[in-house]
Amino acid sequence: MGKKVFVLAELREGVLRNVSFEAIAAGKQLADGGEIIALLMGESVQSYTQELIAYGADRVITIESDQLKHYTSDGYSQCLLTAIEKEQPDVLIMGHTALGKDLSPKIANRLNVGLISDITAIENIDNQWTFIRPIYSGKAFERKKMVGDFIFVTIRPNNIEAIEKDDTRTGAVAAIDVEVKDLAMTIKEVIRKASEGVDLAEAKVVVAGGRGVKSADGFKPLQELADVLGGAVGASRGACDADYCDYSLQIGQTGKVVTPDLYIACGISGAIQHLAGMSNSKVIVAINKDPEANIFQVADYGIVGDLFEVVPLLTEEFRKI
Ligand code: FAD
């Protein structure tokens, strides 16, 4: 029998995050012909509902409140729990994003259910859903099954492919009224850095710099290459610690985890803590002047050379395409 699948859609800076569409695709697998319901919360969200339907949602439930303008775990959990109580889904999926990492344990606790976090793939083995997730900083993968009937997972961005968008799809949209109250914390304002471009966690191409870039100015050729490829710039902790760039760019065990289609590591030695954040990238290109650098162990393509010569050459060539 088909399952009722709840997907938490995520809005950021007025744009639906791709992981919302990837979660819908994951939901399609688990629904077994059942219904995919996307839940969308925020201050004013009606204009985003059709996009969720185009990506495969059968129904969209909206909850609007000025208290939901910015994410708070209190506000979001009140709304999500209300919607779950009303709809009684069999499956709940959210992105393994900053929001999902914060919200999912709280929801699992309130529902008294298990949670399998950070999944990268779904398999059906002997008629049981099995979830694959990286462990030991990406050095191994484990397969997990839920105990009990309720399935609750968070999915790592950029791993499960979204369904092709179909603007002709139709679906129902309904609002639920929730009085968001007794918030322990409210957010007055979010001040973002002006330089933020493509979202690093969701970028299809990441050009990352390490201590080998030698200065903040050394990141400029990397930014140019990222711009030409429509990607984002990331960094090793070595580069962040040396004050060449902001910690928001750090990739690794104590930074962001990324899984782009293409990861270009420039002047990064490949410490295990860095690999933890990028080794699952689909194609890895390493540029390093030390042929013995550890990064070449995980690279699909290695270029032994000076990044200040190689990166501008790549930019020039990609510009021609
Ligand atoms: P280095 O190791 O100094 O490497 C620089 C590389 O640049 C060298 O391989 C060199 O050959 C190359 N190079 C120099 N000049 C050029 C040039 N002109 N052209 C080409 N190549 C050049 N690190 C992370 O990245 N992310 C994390 O999340 C993280 N978390 C950590 C958590 C803990 C608890 C600890 C202890 C460490 C963590 N680290 C993390 C730090 C990690 O161990 C390394 O110190 C760090 O990744 C090194 O950064 P790097 O590769 O930029 O620098």
UniProtKB/TrEMBL annotation:
Key words, A-Z: Electron transport, FAD, Flavoprotein, Transport
InterPro entries membership: DHS-like_NAD/FAD-binding_dom, ETF_a/b_N, ETF_a/FixB, ETF_alpha_N, ETF_asu_C, ETF_asu_C_CS, Rossmann-like_a/b/a_fold
Protein origin, superkingdom: Bacteria
Limits of the Electron transfer flavoprotein alpha/beta-subunit N-terminal domain: 5-194
The family this protein is said to belong to: Belongs to the ETF alpha-subunit/FixB family.
Protein's name in the database: Electron transfer flavoprotein subunit alpha
